[in-house]
Amino acid sequence: MNEDAWIRRIEARLPVYRRSASRKGGLVLGIGDDAAIYRPAPGEDLIFTTDMMHEERHFRRGYPPDAVGWKALCRSLSDIAAMGAQPRFALLSLAVAPWVKPAWIDGFYDGFLALATRYKVALAGGDLSRAAHTSIDVMVCGSVPAGTALRRGTAYAGDLLYVSGELGGAVLGLRSERSRSPKTLAARERHLRPVPRVALGMALRRRGIASAAMDLSDGLSSDLARLARASGLAAKLCRPLPVFPGASEADALHGGDDYELLFAAPASARIPARLAGQRLTRVGELIDGEPGHLSLEGETLVPAGWDPFVR
Amino acid sequence: MNEDAWIRRIEARLPVYRRSASRKGGLVLGIGDDAAIYRPAPGEDLIFTTDMMHEERHFRRGYPPDAVGWKALCRSLSDIAAMGAQPRFALLSLAVAPWVKPAWIDGFYDGFLALATRYKVALAGGDLSRAAHTSIDVMVCGSVPAGTALRRGTAYAGDLLYVSGELGGAVLGLRSERSRSPKTLAARERHLRPVPRVALGMALRRRGIASAAMDLSDGLSSDLARLARASGLAAKLCRPLPVFPGASEADALHGGDDYELLFAAPASARIPARLAGQRLTRVGELIDGEPGHLSLEGETLVPAGWDPFVR
Question: Domains plus CATH for chain A?
Answer without folding.
Answer: 3-145 (3.30.1330.10), 160-300 (3.90.650.10)
